[in-house]
Amino acid sequence: xTFFIFIILSVLRLEFWLSAFTGFVAGAELLVLAILYxxxxxxxxxxxxxxxxxxxxxxxxxxxxxxxxAGLVGIQLKRSLISAMSAVQEKNKVVGMFxxxxxxxxxxxxxxxxxxxxxxxxRVCVMFLDIRNFTRFSExxxxxxxxxxxxxxxxxxxxxxxxxxxxxxxxxxxxxxAVFGAPISDGGNDVKNAVEASLELxxxxxxxxxxxxxxxxxxxxxLHTGEAMTGNVGSEARKxxxxxxxxxxxxxxxxxxxKEFGTKLLVTQAVYDDIKDTVPGRHLSSIxxxxxxxxxxxxxxxxx
Length: 304
Prior knowledge:
InterPro entries: A/G_cyclase (IPR001054), Adenylyl/Guanylyl_Cyclase_3/4 (IPR050697), Nucleotide_cyclase (IPR029787). By secondary structure, the protein is α+β, with helices and mostly antiparallel strands.
């Protein structure tokens, strides 16, 4: 029984050779003891185990093959552990690269496409969200209360973005930038998803205000869609999935116009053209943006 215990314990090292060696040593030791001991003391030995050398040979072989079996079990356990650790590392790599607030569904889809490159030109819809009058709010409250306020609001808003197949790309203090269509696209529904998410974000803030769960809060949202360069930017120590292009700058500019017009949700012509048949909107203005020769038409969508 003692020999079997050592053989079983050898599995914990997850090394085949160690388990096989343990089985070999156990079998050899038992056989040597039997050969040396039986001729000298044939009577005191228990009859059913030690009346001849033959049973010891079979037991020695049993120990040896038990060591082989234990080694094979150790190999399988080792492979399973390595596979599990690799899966965790891949998942942590994805989450670290694309942000902590990537939805589990997106993480799974990224892991399925882990051999594909994420550096490419893609058509995306970019969302900028900003909490209005946050500076005034934060100046009158202790840091802990301000952080708790942001975490509470963002916990609700992040879920909405995730549900609509978006990804929070960056937090901007009192707001964030989200992208729809990268790194995983939802076919031709990325603009639709972004608009629906925006309308739901506004409804959620209104609900939290009405329920008294947060101090009176207003947000502004800006959307623009277009081609963008996407890819992992940084060093080996730290990389971040980044969206680069005019689409980002224009979405940010459109969001800032909410303050000027007293609105909550503004989109560009490119976004409006995709959803005008399903979401009501009105033309507000044509703005001149640095770097563009033609003015950009801005629309207000679905009032709350």
